[in-house]
Specification:
The complex is a heterodimer of chains A (179) and B (438).
Chain A lengths: L2 E2 L2 E2 H37 L7 H23 L14 H36 L10 H28 L16
Antiparallel strand pairs in A: 1-2
Helix pairs in contact in A: 1-2, 2-4, 3-4
Chain B lengths: L1 H15 L4 H16 L2 H16 L6 H14 L2 H13 L5 H14 L5 H18 L4 H13 L8 H10 L3 H29 L12 H8 L3 H15 L13 H18 L5 H34 L2 H11 L4 H18 L2 H18 L4 H16 L6 H10 L4 H24 L1 H9 L3
Helix pairs in contact in B: 1-2, 2-3, 2-14, 3-14, 4-13, 4-14, 5-6, 5-11, 6-7, 6-8, 6-10, 7-8, 7-19, 8-10, 8-19, 8-20, 9-17, 9-18, 10-18, 10-20, 10-21, 12-13, 14-17, 15-17, 16-17, 16-18, 17-18, 18-20, 20-21
The chains are: A mainly alpha (179), B mainly alpha (438).
Chain lengths: 179, 438
């Protein structure tokens, strides 16, 4: 592996891999904001709200949250309690983080399979949304797929702690914007 | 009840090992649920929650309010707020710290996050206070404490999550936060006066600003006022008259707020394509981490309810005939202790499923309890050892020790405790405004 400008090819690949879902999340979020704005304006001015706004909102939310989940899992942006950090020495912390991430990822496989099964069920039942007649199984499969990717991302992070610590982004401080 | 307590302890152990809180709560929730029913039922419950939570219409309010806060940040409105409050208060002893508190309060009215409020105001207020030789203790503490108002004065992300978790009206919770928030400002102002009365050198008076200049500074804050009136007024039903006929749902209020903040930032020329992209991605990431925790908390609370912890607590209280008010004080004590250890959102998500059924069955108002919980959470943000606001300031400033900041926050912390007692003993202060709503 050749190192150029402090960034390995693997890191660069990871950044590109994260870009697509991040852009998707950003786009649907912006669409959500614009749609809500026009829904309210149209309702007030023309008494003609966007009828499918509710189901589009639900769709956009799911796309946004689940495209972001694998990315934040790989980057270690989940909300954690870091109170006991001073008690762990650096090598010990590395082993701890490796185990915890591998375990978390492996455990997530179980619900991921369940969500996949629920998506299959939605496909068989042929459920569609109320206004736009979008088949429910699309979004269900998307959620299942992204849950799998989240699980893989966590396991990859765990492995990276063990074998390639330079790949692991420094964990950020817990949730910056909710508190 | 024993299973629930074991589950609670298991979550604590896992999160202290740095397992993401979302996964720790989900794991213990699923295992506990499986123990009470069957593993098939447990995993089905988890799978359904994963699919349904992300598509919950009510939850869309969360990313939109976060987005609004970030656009407001980019718009640079904090400078105008500080300039205006500085013009009116700067010539008092401790006046700059007082101006900081008021500006924080104003910023809280358009931002739903305490950490963002503290981080933003520190960049604006700190250089000014340094210029006038304010002590680091007073200046940092006034920002850290003033920043806590972010989650109480609407909009508030924490109140949204409490409302979603307990099915309490978000509109009423927001309106209920206004008076306690103003009370908070007044008490913090008093804490500043107290500090400079003890140590006059910590906050020397600045120059007096002439009235025409004061009025001039005031006219720059109209963006903030307009945004607040749009969002909170819309929720309250202020625009519900012909020809507008508008009352906002929380999602609509948040969407209008985000769009409004976006337009303001755009008008002021403070947005570029890349900064918009940055804001959107940050919002999406924060939302995803919040949703993960929410899903985990719901799984966990399904288990806690199934294991009968809230009912057991209620029986215990009835059996020992503890007075309802004593129960509240015990809960507050638990919060103050947990607040020393936990980040505020996790504390809320872990405890509300347990305490909320107990509190409401004792006849307390859910809106009132929400405000009380948020005020306790505010206190935890400036309580050592993990007062997050203090660490935000430390992160932004770098050259001040956390010990200094914590020492400075003592008068503010005491003011908070007094305010909490008042709100507990006089629920009318909280419930007056929401009860006027239809």
């Amino acid at each position: 592996m050749t190192e150029t400008s402090g960034e390995t090819q693997l890191q660069r690949a990871g950044r590109w891999l994260a870009l697509l879902p991040s852009l998707l999340a950003a786009t649907v979020l912006f669409a959500l904001m614009v749609m809500t704005f026009f829904d309210v304006i149209l309702r007030s001015v023309a008494n003609d709200p966007i009828e499918s706004a509710t189901e589009l909102t639900r769709l956009f939310m799911a796309i946004m949250v689940f495209s972001a989940l694998p990315v934040i899992s790989w980057r270690g942006e989940h909300i954690v309690v870091d109170l006991l950090d001073p008690l762990f020495s650096a090598p010990l912390a590395r082993i701890r983080d490796a185990i915890i991430n591998l375990l978390s990822g492996a455990l997530l496989m179980w619900p991921a399979f369940r969500v996949w099964a629920l998506a299959e069920r939605a496909l068989n039942y042929g459920d569609v949304t109320e206004y736009l007649n979008i088949p429910q199984f699309y979004i269900a499969y998307f959620i299942a797929l992204m849950t799998f990717l989240t699980s893989l991302a966590l396991m990859a992070r765990g492995l990276a702690y063990l074998f390639a610590p330079h790949l692991v982004h420094k964990a950020q401080s817990p949730s910056a914007d909710s508190n | 009840m024993l299973t629930a307590l074991i589950g609670f302890a298991a979550v604590l152990v896992l999160v202290f090992l740095r397992m993401p809180i979302a996964i720790a709560m989900a794991l213990v929730g699923v295992v506990g649920y499986a123990y009470e029913t069957s593993s098939r039922a447990a995993i089905s419950m988890a799978g359904r929650l994963i699919i349904d939570t992300s598509q919950d219409y009510g939850l869309s309010v969360v990313p939109l309010f976060i987005l609004m806060g970030l656009f407001v940040n980019k718009g640079g409105l904090s400078q105008e707020l500080y300039r205006a409050s500085h013009a009116f208060l700067g010539h008092f002893r401790g006046g700059l710290a007082m101006a900081t508190i008021v500006a924080c309060g104003g910023f809280s009215a358009i931002c739903g996050s305490s950490l963002a409020t503290a981080a933003t105001m520190s960049k604006v207020a700190m250089p000014q206070m340094r210029k006038y030789n304010y002590s680091d203790e007073l200046s940092t503490a006034s920002i850290a404490a003033g920043g806590t108002l972010g989650i109480l004065i609407p909009p508030s992300v924490i109140l949204v999550i409490y409302g979603l978790l307990t099915e309490t009206s978000i509109g009423k919770l927001f309106i209920a936060g206004i008076l306690p928030g103003i009370l908070g400002i007044l008490f913090y102002l008093f804490a500043v006066r107290l500090t400079v009365a003890r140590k006059p050198e910590s906050g020397p008076a600045g120059e007096r600003v002439a009235w025409p200049d004061r009025l001039d500074a005031l006219k720059d804050v109209w963006f903030v006022i307009a945004l607040f009136v749009l969002v909170i007024g819309g929720l309250y039903g202020l625009f519900n008259f012909p020809p507008l006929n508008l009352t906002f749902s929380p999602t609509e209020a948040a969407g209008m707020g985000a769009a409004g903040a976006f337009l303001i930032a755009l008008l002021r020329g403070s947005l570029s394509v890349s900064s918009v992209k940055e804001v959107l991605i940050e919002t999406a990431h924060t939302t995803a981490s919040l949703f993960a925790v929410l899903i985990g908390a719901w799984i966990f609370s399904n288990f806690i309810n199934l294991a009968g912890l809230p009912t057991a607590l209620l029986e215990l209280v009835t059996q020992w005939s503890v007075s309802p008010l004593a129960v509240i004080f015990m809960i507050l004590l638990v919060y103050v202790i947990l607040g020393c250890v936990f980040e505020s959102l996790s504390m809320l998500l872990l405890t509300v499923p347990i305490f909320f059924p107990l509190v409401t069955s004792l006849g307390f108002d859910p809106v009132w309890f929400g405000i009380i919980v948020v005020v306790v959470t505010e206190i935890s943000l400036i309580t050592p050892p993990v007062g997050l606001n203090v660490f935000v300031l430390k992160g932004v400033l770098g050259d001040v020790s956390t010990g200094t900041i914590f020492r400075g926050t003592i008068p503010f912390w005491l003011a908070d405790i007094v305010r909490l007692l008042i709100l507990v003993l006089l629920p009318g202060l909280v419930l007056f405004l929401p009860n006027l709503m239809h």
